[in-house]
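Lab channel / #folding
Pinned by the channel admin:
"Please post every new chain as: sequence first, then the structure tokens as a reply. Keep commentary short and put observations after the output so the thread stays searchable."

First post following the new format, from NK:
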Amino acid sequence: QVQLVESGGGLVQPGGSLRLSCAASGSIRSINAMGWYRQAPGKQRELVATFTNGDTTNYGDSVKGRFTISRDNAKNTVKLQMNNLRPEDTAVYYCKTDVWSTDLSRRYVIWGQGTQVTVSS
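Reply from TO:
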């Protein structure tokens, strides 16, 4: 089994910064992709930033130049540095990982429980 633990959400003023962390644990053989998505009420879930195979990063258009994703492969952890936050960044942020498990070498897509980010004065 694989679990994700998310942390770092909270309330921040416009123009401020916040740092999210997501750690995967369990029977992980390798990680195919890992990163962050977000969803605001009444809106579709959208890409924020991810790592995929080939050490490729992917960013949503609205966060390019403001957010930076990083990773620690030894700890199966990704972090999201969010700078110059805007009210429209307010959403529940979900960590997602796509892994090969040591359990029968199965592939799983796992979502975290979500962490609230609120940008408001």
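NK: The mean pLDDT is 95.
TO: also worth noting, The first strand starts at residue 2 and ends at 7.
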